[in-house]
Design brief:
The complex is a heterodimer. Chain A is α/β, with parallel strands linked by helices. Chain A contains ten helices and six strands. Chain B starts with a helix and ends with a strand. Classes of the chains: A alpha/beta, B mainly alpha. At the A-B interface, helix 1, helix 5, helix 9 and helix 10 of A face helix 21, helix 22 and helix 23 of B.
Chain lengths: ~230, ~675
């Protein structure tokens, strides 16, 4: 029986991490003889895109992509982060298995990545241990998905809440949480100032926060796992 | 013709005899008017000196006592008047030397005190004195000075009296027109004062003047006027007798002997004259006899003339005797008894020389020249010489009068000029002071305005500075956030990533060792993970930049409200319309709104004693509406004047082109409604 060969793309700007993934993969194939990995590495968005395109051209169906989110953006400015790369991969390689691996623990971002990329694996680097990484690889190969504990917790908290927050609501909360000014928001979001105010008012109402207190809103939203 | 001239001289003396007393006896009333004062003794002594029951010496002593008591007392205007009256009393008692010294003293004192009336009075005293002494030029001088002083100070009666005196003296020296002018001036004043006795004297004097210039009809007219005035005077019998005598004389001179005789007869008809006024009686008798002589009716003429002479002799009336003798000489001439005529005429001539009656002296010389053909030439020569010298003297004196009058006029003019100058200076000074005051107040106003403007601009500048610093702070804050984000990101992406990679790699290292060492390795790995977590948390916190530093208007308002509510112990409620977009409202507007709220709350705190304050921010299409409502004691908007707080609020609202509406009722609280247009 020929061992099954997987085309693995590791896109991360930290060489150490890349190395760690590589070690883990080798370790796994060493212990599972019928599985082989062909490992390709990229350290930024440009490299990532090239890799994805190459895999697309090679028509490799069974590919695994380790994708970091915080990546130096591409030189032409089209690919801004790992998220965009994920989207590209989803488009070009629909059957590839994407493992988002990030240091992010920002609920909003996690949520939006879950929604946009719908990755097979979602690793929060802080949760990760060598053992868990091996575990992830196993799960991905056999029966995806595999989510880090943090992600699972987030999903759970959101399922408990019956709030319906759309993309813009989340964005507003996110922007507020990072200290963006209300007056700058209309430039960031395709919304009118009045519209933003209205959404904010709704959010406060939903989170049961007093009208004047933006800070309280943010705290509450974070508590509920929206940020 | 000779006869006419004779009559002329004869008549002249009569009005003089009448006029003198009325111009000298003036100070009587002044003394009587003194109010009783603490120096009553002085008044009493003066009164005692008037009492004829005391001997002359006693009366003089009284005056001396009065004088000394005045001297020892403090000098004041009242004492001054008393001094003049003492002087006059001395004069009346015939002590002319004392009179002169006292009057001089009074004059000095009056000049010192600048008491114009007393000065005039003193001059009047001198004038009367010199008039009596027949030193007419001096008398005229004093009359003139006194008249000037009285005139200037509005003492009309006294000045009229002075003018009458001057008129009299001028008449005496044949300046008829001058005399008439002065008399009419006096008449004008007396008419105003309705002093009929003085008017009588004046008209009588003018009438006499008319006789002197042969205007007999005019003279009769004025005498008529004099009589009209006399009718309004009580106790006028003597004066009436005198005027009738004067009228008789006028007719006599006019040649209307019949009418003259009628008048004399009226006087002689009753015995009253004979008994009461022998002098007057003798005069009338003499005149009547002379009148008859002129009518060539010699019956009883001689006896009448001699009777008059006898009476006059007994009275020692020298001028009367002189006239009688001249009339007798006339009679003897007519009776062609030349010896007697010459004798009587020579006697008259001597007497005239003795009493210095130039007119009668000339008359007697004329008669003698006619009677004594041998010595006629000498008499005529003497007559001519004497009348020439007389004329020269009269002319000189007239000139002197003119000079005195001129000097006085000049003096008056000068004082008037000075007075005018004074007034002008005063007006100029007042004007200047006014201008200075105006300028000063203008300047003060201007500097006040300047200050206000300066304050206003400073306030504006302050607000601008505040705005700028606010913006600066915002920028700084933004930079801070940016930097924190950067650090956070660095930690998160860089350090954390590297740590993670290291940890993972360490984990995959196939370490060989005993179980203990492997466990320890695992523990360190776990430790590393914990460190990662901590760093992540730090990064998180750094990243947690909720809009806490941003100046949130609503929060500021709330803070103010809260702090004031604690101070004033009142509840508050704040309602802010959510649709207000504070970011679209400019900072100046917000600052002013904030200040308005502050000011209004301050007012509530100070005056309203409210339990609850409600602050509402609303908005409609055009305006931002702020309502500040309290349930305090309220006030009457119309009665109380605006305080600084409300004024400040008003000026701020004005700056924002807004409208302020205050509604308040006693004990129902106050509501401020402020509308500010959105821009």
């Amino acid at each position: 029986m020929n061992p099954k060969k997987y085309f693995v793309l590791i896109i991360d700007d930290h060489p150490l991490i890349v190395e760690a993934y590589e070690t883990a993969l080798k370790y796994y194939s060493k212990h599972n003889v019928n599985i082989e990995f062909s490992i390709h590495k990229a350290h930024n968005c440009d490299g990532g895109r090239q890799l994805i395109k190459r895999v697309f051209r090679l028509r490799k169906k069974d590919s695994i992509i380790f994708l970091d989110i915080n990546l130096p953006q591409s030189k032409d400015g089209v690919i801004l982060s790992g998220e965009d790369l994920g989207l590209l991969a989803r488009k070009l390689l629909p059957r590839s298995k994407i493992i988002v691996s990030t240091t992010l623990n920002n609920n909003y971002r996690i949520h939006s990545i879950l929604r946009s990329i719908d990755p097979e694996g979602f690793l929060i680097k802080n949760d990760l241990t060598p053992l868990e990484l091996l575990h992830t690889i196993q799960n991905i190969l056999k029966d995806p998905p595999y989510y880090s504990k943090t992600v699972i917790k987030l999903l759970r908290s959101q399922i408990v809440n019956d709030f319906v927050l759309d993309h813009y609501d989340r964005r507003i909360l996110h922007e507020l949480s990072i200290g963006t000014r209300m007056k700058d928001l209309p430039e960031i979001l395709p919304l009118s100032p009045a519209g933003i105010e209205k959404r904010k008012r709704n959010l406060k109402h939903m989170f049961n926060v007093k009208k004047l207190d933006d800070r309280q809103l943010i705290i509450k939203a974070r508590e509920k796992g929206y940020i | 013709m000779n006869l006419n001239r004779l009559i002329l001289f004869l008549v002249f003396c009569i009005p003089i005899g009448l006029a003198i007393p009325s111009c000298v006896e003036h100070s009587k009333e002044t003394i009587a008017q003194f109010p009783p004062s603490k120096n009553d003794s002085v008044t009493i002594w003066i009164r005692a000196s008037k009492n004829t029951s005391h001997t002359l010496n006693q009366r003089k002593q009284f005056l001396t006592k009065a004088y000394h008591s005045i001297k020892t007392a403090q000098s004041d205007p009242l004492q001054l008047k008393k001094l003049t009256s003492i002087a006059f009393q001395n004069y009346k008692l015939g002590d002319t030397i004392l009179f002169k010294t006292r009057t001089s003293e009074a004059l000095d004192l009056a000049t010192k005190h600048n008491d114009s009336f007393a000065m005039g009075d003193a001059h009047w005293n001198f004038a009367s004195y010199y008039n009596q002494k027949e030193v007419y030029d001096r008398a005229y001088y004093h009359f003139n000075t006194a008249a000037g002083i009285f005139e200037k100070n509005g003492h009309n009666y006294e000045s009229a009296k002075m003018q009458y005196g001057m008129s009299f003296i001028k008449g005496r020296f044949k300046d008829y027109s001058g005399s008439e002018v002065l008399a009419f001036l006096a008449i004008k004043k007396f008419k105003k004062l309705e002093n009929y006795e003085e008017l009588f004297s004046c008209y009588n004097h003018i009438g006499s003047l008319q006789i002197d210039i042969y205007e007999y009809d005019k003279a009769l007219f004025y005498f008529g006027k004099a009589i009209d005035n006399l009718k309004k005077v009580k106790n006028n019998r003597d004066l009436k007798d005198a005027i009738i005598n004067n009228i008789g004389n006028t007719y006599l001179r006019k040649g209307d002997y019949q009418s003259a005789l009628q008048n004399f007869n009226v006087l002689l008809k009753n015995d009253r004259l004979k008994q009461n006024n022998k002098k007057s009686y003798a005069r009338t008798l003499d005149n009547k006899a002379f009148c008859k002589l002129l009518m060539k009716d010699t019956l009883h003429v001689s006896s009448s003339l001699n009777e008059a002479l006898r009476i006059r002799d007994s009275l020692d009336n020298k001028s009367g005797i002189l006239i009688s003798k001249i009339h007798l000489a006339r009679y003897y001439t007519y009776a062609q008894d030349n010896v007697k005529a010459i004798r009587v005429a020579k006697e008259a001539n001597r007497l005239a020389d003795e009493i210095k009656n130039s007119r009668d002296y000339l008359e007697s010389l004329f008669i003698l020249a006619n009677l004594d053909p041998l010595n006629s030439k000498t008499y005529l020569k003497r007559h001519i010489e004497y009348s020439d010298s007389l004329q020269i003297i009269e002319r000189k004196i007239q000139n002197k009068f003119t000079r005195i009058a001129f000097e006085t006029d000049e003096y008056i003019e000068e004082t008037e000029r000075l007075e005018e100058q004074k007034i002008w200076i005063l007006i100029t000074v007042l004007g200047l002071i006014l201008i200075v005051i105006l300028l000063l107040s203008f300047w003060i106003q201007k500097s006040k305005n300047k200050n206000l403007l300066f304050e206003y601009e400073q306030q504006k500048a302050n607000e601008e500075v505040y705005l700028i610093s606010l913006k600066q702070q915002e920028k700084l804050e933004a930079e801070k956030i940016k930097e924190r984000n950067r650090i956070s990101e660095e930690l998160h992406d860089g350090v954390l990533g590297k740590l993670f990679g290291t940890r993972m790699n360490l984990g995959f290292l196939e370490l060989k060792g005993n179980k203990n060492i492997l466990e320890q390795h695992q523990e360190y790995l776990n430790e590393l993970q914990t460190i990662e977590k901590e760093i992540r948390n730090v990064s998180h916190k750094l990243n947690d930049n909720t809009d806490s530093t941003q100046v949130n208007f609503s929060n500021i308002i709330k803070e103010v409200l809260e702090s004031k509510s604690k101070l004033g112990n009142f509840e508050y409620s704040l309602e802010i319309d959510e649709s207000i977009n504070w970011f679209q409202i400019n900072e100046v507007c917000k600052i002013n709104l904030f200040r308005i709220v502050q000011e209004a709350l301050h007012n509530v705190l100070k005056h309203a004693f409210a339990k609850k304050v409600t602050l509402i921010f609303m908005t409609d299409k055009k305006n931002l509406v702020l309502k500040i409502k309290d349930d305090g004691i309220g006030y009457n908007i119309h009665q109380r004047h605006k305080g600084i707080g409300i004024k400040n609020i008003e000026s701020r609202i004005k700056k924002l082109n807004g409208v302020l509406n205050i509604s308040s009722k006693q004990s129902e609280g106050t509501t401020l409604t402020i509308k500010i247009p959105k821009k």
